[in-house]
Amino acid sequence: ATTVKDPPRPVEAIDLAPACCEEHGVQVRKDRPCMQFVGLLSADECRAILKSIESKHDSKACSLEPGSRSQFRLRDKELSETIWERLREHLPSEIDGGEALGLREGWNHARYFPGQSVFAHMDQRQTSDEHKGDKTVASRMSLTIYLDEGYSGAEFVFVK
């Protein structure tokens, strides 16, 4: 588990939905938030996570095919609980007629090497290990966290 500390400042939530929806000619829906969070993790917390996962990543690109990357999954209940506590006030408490329970304990860690890219896609609903037997529980939102800085590219682009 990754040890995290309190963030150095409150989390700033920026609502991207109005601009994104206008760009793509669709209406903003309160039940479909699109947010950017500034200050979710401190620089020290990001460095600690990066250090803890460094040895698990590939050391170089194995392929330049779209969708290729170094990726693995780790369970980290403490990190999930910490981030949920920081985010929950900015997110709807109900989604698709159900209660927002928190974040899954499983985290996908991805690293892209120069020349690698992801393809346009929509994340599918998934259950979690901790709720595997309950068919009424499934993911409703995706969360992407950039842990490092100092790179070019790596745009997060919304497509219609």
TrEMBL record:
It comes from the Eukaryota. This is Prolyl 4-hydroxylase alpha subunit Fe(2+) 2OG dioxygenase domain-containing protein. It comes from Lotharella globosa.
